[in-house]
User: Which sequence fits this backbone?
């Protein structure tokens, strides 16, 4: 059978560099796609496509019709942006929206107020800076996420970014796997800590070095949040790197053929894995893989070299760690001291640091950032780094390459922009979905709950004394706010037309992942801050010195919390 | 008016799809009926058919039609791809049911060469959508060699 059109002149060689730059193959692909969506939108506006038909097509381009307006979700592959791209996003928020955007838990950026008729132009503007909105919604393989510290973390074993790019290409308009039973999320981790929540993804991949220099993949399948939360089952250890795509193909083919399509609440792969049992599922995948494992989709070494060459290290200066300077600054400036402790992580290279800019000051919906803030972050990334910005699944910005000697200056600038909250890893670094204020699926609002909690607990010393605490809020069972893996989770539920909130304890997204357990009957919105306070009181009274909330909970169990929370309920 | 697209052109449909047997030349019959009387008839398969189990049997059919029972149901894509690439089916592979223009590109890449469209306008849109993208990232039935093996640096 004939191949595709003219390919002469297309070398498919992206520029070597430090962030992935499109090859002319990539650019042509995106440009053609924009024109295709433009024609689909025109056909819809002309009445040639029904709402249902257009829905599926716009979802493939990240466009939802929400409660108040369309919402456009822009892909940020594995959460990495250049300064140029972030500036373009700021401009789009200003020109087509109300001047702000929202960082999502899939490391993407959402804008909430575009006009449908403008969307093809927005996509064309994005294409000019090598961006798109492909597969950010719909029943297809979504943006592949990874460690927000990829490539710079000091506990990294393998840089996951080239693998994310290999999978980004493979999953973009896959001929067979773009019309799955349900959405499909893949997360990749290559560090000792799991900052990518791989245990609660449809597929979680751990990359590690093998004995002969080859890299190996461990596969977890069927994790997820939503109304049936589950921790992924390990179905393959040590898959050699060249087999990555054929093994994914085998998993996706089994899911595409056998996943349920009769009930969207039972359509995720976790339900199939549970129904078949993990062993049964693995056997099916292995049988399929045996038949395709050395097919042309097996990755040749040249391809791996091609992609890895796009992620070369930045030209780091040879700096020394600024231990004395920082120690002095800590003493002189308590606010800076707090920020250093919570928001600054160690870097692979001496003299550098990784900075998390919190988007979660009190009074602002978590993850919301203005055009001005985006431009400021882009500028800082150039001034204090190599023009690279990350988005974390905790909905914060990351500056990955900040010289330690510039940290205090950056802290001051970030503080002026409201981006220097020292709450990373603390209670008020809430993960929160857009909730009933914006989302038509939500049972309840989530942003006002986040704000009420942030206002109640605004004393830094108290927060710091509490130590590491993840509080996650979802406005409905779809769990976009990842409430199941919050140490404290809050879920909006509908009780005879009123908004109520169910509280769970003991969830955890790290390597020893666990799902939260529900405390008991739900609460009204007004009660939530009191309930959280009672939970924290139990912890503070029960903990051993230095014992973190999660460990304390695991030791004493849910009962003491339950008793305290419902003590006055009569 | 249902309109057939075959090999990227609008074509006269010389087959008639029937819901029950007996199968006969010129008819596309369901699998059970076709098994009883396969000579000269086409066969149609439901989207939950175990394709690897029936492939050897149906390879002789001049037409295999696969049902797409709902607009976003992609099971037929896997069936088509396996029939062509794993089992080497050479005859007409036809999509029917909820076949809308923008899915035909995926179907085409999975080896379908005939599409029963709801109207002539849809048929024209389907032909246009199949030609729209110059190339893709993956191996497919149409282009079994992925770009990373076709392009050399």
Assistant:
């Amino acid at each position: 059978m004939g191949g595709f059109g003219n390919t002469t002149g297309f070398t498919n060689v992206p520029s070597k560099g430090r962030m992935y730059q499109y090859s002319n193959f990539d650019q042509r692909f995106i440009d053609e796609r924009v024109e295709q969506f433009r024609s689909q939108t025109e056909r819809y506006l002309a009445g040639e496509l029904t709402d249902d038909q257009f829905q599926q097509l716009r979802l493939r381009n990240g466009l939802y019709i929400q409660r108040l307006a369309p919402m456009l979700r822009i892909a940020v592959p594995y959460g990495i942006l250049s300064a140029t791209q972030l500036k373009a996003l700021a401009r789009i928020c200003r020109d087509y929206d109300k001047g702000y955007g929202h960082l999502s838990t899939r490391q993407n950026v959402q804008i909430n107020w575009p006009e449908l008729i403008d969307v093809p132009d927005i996509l064309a503007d994005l294409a000019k800076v090598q961006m798109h909105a492909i597969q950010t919604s719909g029943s297809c393989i979504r943006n592949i996420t990874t460690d927000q510290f990829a490539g710079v973390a000091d506990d990294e074993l393998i840089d996951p970014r080239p693998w994310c790019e290999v999978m980004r290409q493979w999953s973009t308009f896959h001929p067979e796997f773009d019309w799955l039973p349900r959405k499909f999320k893949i997360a990749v981790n290559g560090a000792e800590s799991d900052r990518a929540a791989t245990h609660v993804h449809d597929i979680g991949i751990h990359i590690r070095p093998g004995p002969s220099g080859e890299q190996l993949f461990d596969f977890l399948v069927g994790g997820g949040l939503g109304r049936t939360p589950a921790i992924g089952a390990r179905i393959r250890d040590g898959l050699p790197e060249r087999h990555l795509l054929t093994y994914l193909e085998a998993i996706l083919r089994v899911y595409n053929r056998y996943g349920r399509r009769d009930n969207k609440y039972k359509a995720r792969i976790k339900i199939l894995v549970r129904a078949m049992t993990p062993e049964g599922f693995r056997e099916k995948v292995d049988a399929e893989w045996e038949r395709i494992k050395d097919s042309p989709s097996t990755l040749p070494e040249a391809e791996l070299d091609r992609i890895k060459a796009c992620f070369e290290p930045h030209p780091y200066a040879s700096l020394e760690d600024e231990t004395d300077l920082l120690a002095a600054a800590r003493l002189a400036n308590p606010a800076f001291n707090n920020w250093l402790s919570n928001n600054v992580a160690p870097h692979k290279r001496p003299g550098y640091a990784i900075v998390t800019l919190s988007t979660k000051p009190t009074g602002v919906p978590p993850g919301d950032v203005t055009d001005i803030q985006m431009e400021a972050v882009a500028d800082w990334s150039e001034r204090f780094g190599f023009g690279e910005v990350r988005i974390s699944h905790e909905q914060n910005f990351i500056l990955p390459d900040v010289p330690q000697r510039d940290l205090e200056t950056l802290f001051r600038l970030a503080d002026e922009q409201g981006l220097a909250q020292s709450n990373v890893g603390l209670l008020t670094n809430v993960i929160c979905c857009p909730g009933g204020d914006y989302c038509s699926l939500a049972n309840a609002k989530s942003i006002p709950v986040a704000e009420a909690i942030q206002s109640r607990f605004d004393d830094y010393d108290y927060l710091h004394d509490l130590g590491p605490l993840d509080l996650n809020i979802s406005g409905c069972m779809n769990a976009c706010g990842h409430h199941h893996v919050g140490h404290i989770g809050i879920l909006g539920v509908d009780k005879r037309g009123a908004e109520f909130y169910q509280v769970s304890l003991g969830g955890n997204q790290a390597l020893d992942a666990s799902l939260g357990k529900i405390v008991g009957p739900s609460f009204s919105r007004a009660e939530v801050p009191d309930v959280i306070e009672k939970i924290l009181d139990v912890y503070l009274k029960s903990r051993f010195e230095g014992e973190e909330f999660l460990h304390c909970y695991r030791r004493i169990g849910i009962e003491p919390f339950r008793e305290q929370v419902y003590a006055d309920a009569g | 008016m249902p309109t057939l697209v075959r090999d990227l052109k609008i074509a006269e449909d010389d087959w008639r799809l029937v819901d029950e047997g007996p199968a006969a030349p010129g008819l596309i019959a369901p699998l059970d009926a076709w098994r009883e009387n396969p000579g000269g008839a086409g066969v149609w398969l439901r989207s939950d058919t175990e394709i690897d189990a029936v492939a050897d049997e149906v390879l002789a059919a001049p037409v295999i039609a696969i049902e797409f029972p709902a607009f976003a149901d992609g099971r037929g894509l896997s069936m088509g791809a396996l029939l062509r690439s794993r089992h080497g089916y050479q005859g007409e592979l036809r999509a029917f049911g909820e076949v809308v223009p923008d899915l035909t590109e995926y179907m085409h890449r999975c080896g379908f060469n005939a599409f029963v469209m709801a109207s002539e306008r849809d048929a024209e849109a389907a032909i246009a959508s199949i030609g729209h993208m110059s190339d893709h990232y993956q191996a497919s039935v149409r282009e079994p060699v992925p770009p990373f093996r076709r392009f050399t640096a």
Q: What stands out?
A: The interface with chain A takes residues 70-75, 77-79, 81, 86, 100, 102-103, 106, 109-111, 121, 125, 129, 131-153 of chain B (CB under 8 Å). The longest helix of chain B spans residues 75-86. The CA atoms of residues 139 and 149 of chain B lie 10 Å apart.
